[in-house]
Amino acid sequence: MSTFNPTHLAGLTPREAVADVVYRATASFDQADADLLDSAMMEDAVLTIGDRQHFPDRAAIRADCWGPVSKLDTVHMASNVRVRFHSDADANDRNTANEADANMATVTANFQANHYRAGEGMRPDAVGFTTGGMYELQCVRQDGDEAGLWKASSWVVHLTWILGDPSVMTSGEDADKEKK
Q: CA-CA distance, 40 to 49, in Å (whole number)?
């Protein structure tokens, strides 16, 4: 478990606890903290980025997305975070909420994600790749060992714009190949 960024924070309100899923997930990439990723994503969580990248579970997310990106110099920023509990009758098309709805929520956030090749983030002339758009996460509250911890069952990254050189994103994969 990360000592810099613990996976569980005490004293969060229910809305803050759901919003924390976004913060844990994005911080996991920036800090290369696998524990934070695992704390934010269900094992069967699905991640979809734009219309081209789809990761069917946490193992694939970790191997094919988080692994390469966590090796880069990155900063993922989220703002305008909004949480809707599925039990909020006025937020649904129906006026009845069941017990399962109380353990489900949707969180959305605007984002900007800055990516640079490893070790180049502080260079003024470095080539980067920046994306922006909206995150949409379906979240569930955990039972058992992680009782009360909210995790994402799905994460959709709606890309609105890109800026820079997309080949920066594959430089983390290149670093893995060089080690082998």
A: 17
- The token pair at 156 is 């959709």
For 109-162, write each residue's pLDDT tens digit.
999 999 999 999 999 999 999 999 999 999 999 876 666 899 999 999 999 999
pTM above 0.90, yes or no: no
Closest CA to 98 of 108, 89, 106, 110: 89
Residue whose C-alpha is closest to residue 1's, from 40, 47, 34, 23? 34
119 torsion bin: left (phi>0), alpha (psi -120 to 50), beta (else): left
Which residues make Cβ contacts (< 8 Å) with residue 76, sequence separation at least 6?
26, 27, 29, 30, 111, 112, 113, 114
- The residue written with tokens 């009758």 in the block is 89
The string of DSSP letters for 93-105 reads SSS---GGGGGEE
Average pLDDT in the chain: 89
**Quick one: pLDDT at residue 27?**
96
Phi and psi at residue 27, to the nearest 5°: -65, -30
Q: Which pair of structure tokens corresponds to residue 177? A: 């190949």
Contact assessment for residue 30 and residue 74, using Cβ atoms and an 8 Å cutoff:
yes
